[in-house]
Recover the amino acids of this structure.
């Protein structure tokens, strides 16, 4: 079978060069918030919780902001969970007001994500069985598109009020969690989450669909359920 990613060029189809599993070459970063800088554009933000078990591979959740947003708009919804459940939290930021795939195709944001993931893996052993791409709104669309395309990198995909899924090629079978408001006035559930769910089920993905009563918002109990989907049920 011909690999479309190889035929057309990995970046063109949204394929990441990064692969988890390599041993870190540098010492772990200390607990706290770290900016990961690039030659141009906004930095990515990495949150390192205290008390991480550095003798074992670590879970990593990558959270993509919505259109016109920034890392600080989405991080507060996940930081407490990262500290409680002991996972690394990475929040990239788009080069432009929204993600490259939304405005014209894969480009600088994909390249910068590759760089950010490689930087994190240079300091920490990443657990390839618990590496999630998550996002809200346009960020949810980005997470869903990249995660399905790169199922050999992302083990879990979390789409919160995602508008579209643009996957030219599918590699691997990440588990997928979709949450969407029944009263979403920006991206109606009938034309977004429902067709996404059908397509994912038809392609053999393990899918959790979580509708909720509400509009185009991030809901705390939905975030908690998404984290449980990613990390497993927390011991009492």
């Amino acid at each position: 079978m011909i690999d479309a990613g190889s035929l057309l060029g990995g970046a063109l189809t949204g394929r990441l060069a990064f692969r988890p599993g390599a041993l870190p070459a540098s010492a772990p970063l200390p607990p706290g918030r770290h900016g990961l800088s690039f030659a141009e554009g906004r930095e990515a933000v990495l949150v390192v919780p205290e008390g991480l078990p550095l003798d074992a591979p670590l879970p990593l959740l990558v959270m993509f902001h919505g259109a016109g947003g920034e890392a600080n708009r989405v991080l507060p919804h996940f930081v407490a969970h990262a500290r409680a459940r002991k996972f690394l939290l990475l929040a990239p930021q788009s080069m432009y007001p929204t993600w490259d795939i939304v405005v014209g195709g894969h480009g600088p944001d994909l390249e910068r994500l590759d760089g950010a993931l490689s930087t994190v893996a240079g300091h920490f052993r990443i657990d390839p069985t618990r590496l999630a791409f998550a996002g809200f709104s346009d960020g949810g669309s980005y997470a869903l598109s990249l995660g399905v395309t790169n199922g050999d990198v992302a083990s879990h995909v979390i789409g919160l009020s995602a508008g579209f899924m643009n996957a030219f090629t599918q590699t691997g079978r990440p588990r997928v969690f979709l949450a969407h408001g029944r009263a979403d006035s920006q991206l109606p559930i009938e034309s977004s989450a429902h067709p996404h769910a059908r397509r994912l089920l038809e392609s053999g993905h393990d899918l959790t669909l979580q509708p909720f009563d509400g509009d185009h918002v991030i809901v705390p109990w939905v975030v908690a359920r998404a984290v449980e989907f990613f990390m497993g049920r927390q011991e009492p």
Observations:
- The mean pLDDT is 92.
- Helices lie at 4-8, 71-74, 79-85, 100-103, 108-121, 138-149, 193-202, 220-231.
- DSSP finds eight helices and eight strands in the chain.
- The radius of gyration is 17 Å.
